C-alpha cells in the first residue's frame, strides 16, 4: 500500500465538510502513482469514484495533464508553418449521432493544416463507436504503428493518431476500473484537452456540461495554452451540432488567453436543423465515402458545417462563408478523397514494414 497515495485519497474522499481539493502537484503525483501501479487496486478504485463525486478543479486537471505530459507519448513538430490542431474527443465513443471528425481532419490536412487525434478501442463506460473503428473502415489501420512510424505518417500526410494501447499502455489498467465503477472518472475529462504533441498546438475539445468548460479554461491557462477552441458539441465531441445553436468558447486570437463566446446558428448559414443519427459502422463508413465522393446528403451537410467552421477557426479562411465555400470545394473536387488515399497508402506501407516483437 502507498501511504503517500492514501493521504491524497483522504483529501478527496473526506466529504463536503472536511474534504479538500488537490494541488496541481498532488494531482500530478496521484495520477502518476495510479498509472505506474504504485497505488493498490483498492486505493485506485476509491480515488477514482471519490474524485468523481467531488468533481475535479481546473488546477487538478492541469496536474493530471502534467502527469500525462511526463509519462505519455508525444508527436514531434515538422515544418508545416502552422500550429498543429489536437482534436479531443471522448474515448468511449459515440452511440447516438454520426461522427464527422475524421472527415474534418482529412479536410484540414488537405490544405496543409496538421491534425492530431487520439483514442483507443471500444471503451467504458459507453462502449460507443471509437475513431479507430471509423478509420479502419476507411482503410486506415493505426493500430500496428509504433510511435516512430506514426510520426512518419504525421510528417508525410499531416495527420497523426496516438493509439493508446500501442503508444500509452500505462493507461490500459485504468480502463478496467472505469468498467467496474460504471462511471467516468475525472481522467476522462482531462483526456479531452490532453495534447500529445511537443510543438505549438491549437487544442480543440468538446464538452457537455457548462462547469466542464470553466475547468478547461483554468487548466489550459495554468498549462499556458493560448490557442484553444471549446465546443458544446455532439455527445461531448468537437463536432458542431445542427439541431441547436453551436456554443463555442475560443481564445480571442491564436496568440491570446482572452476568451470569446461564439454562437453559431445553423439555419443562418442555410443548414437544416437536424443531426445525422448513428446507424451501423458499415452504414457510417458508406455515408462518409459518399461525402468524400462529393455526393449530396445529410452527412455532407454536417461535413460542410464542421469543415467550414474549422477552416475559418484555423485561420485558413477569413470568415464562415468563405470557410463553407472552401469546404464544399475541397469535398467536391476530390481533394479530401485524395488525402484519404495518401493517408491509407502511407499507413499501409509503414504497417507492412513493421514486425511486432
Automatic annotation (TrEMBL):
Gene Ontology molecular-function annotations: anthranilate phosphoribosyltransferase activity
User: Which Enzyme Commission numbers does its entry carry?
Assistant: 2.4.2.18
Coiled-coil region(s): none
| A Pfam family recorded for this sequence | Glycos_transf_3
- The kind of enzyme this is, by top-level EC class, is transferase
Q: Which GO terms describe its cellular component?
A: cytosol
Give the source's domain of life in one word.
Bacteria
Give start and end of each Glycosyl transferase family 3 N-terminal domain. 6-70
Q: Which InterPro entries has this protein been placed in?
A: Anthranilate_Pribosyl_Tfrase, Glycosyl_Trfase_fam3, Glycosyl_Trfase_fam3_N_dom, Glycosyl_Trfase_fam3_N_dom_sf, Nuc_phospho_transferase
Extract one GO BP annotation from the record. Answer: L-tryptophan biosynthetic process
* UniProt keyword terms in alphabetical order: Amino-acid biosynthesis, Aromatic amino acid biosynthesis, Glycosyltransferase, Transferase
Q: Which residues form the Glycosyl transferase family domain?
A: 97-335
Q: What is this protein called?
A: Glycosyl transferase, family 3
Native species: Nostoc punctiforme (strain ATCC 29133 / PCC 73102)
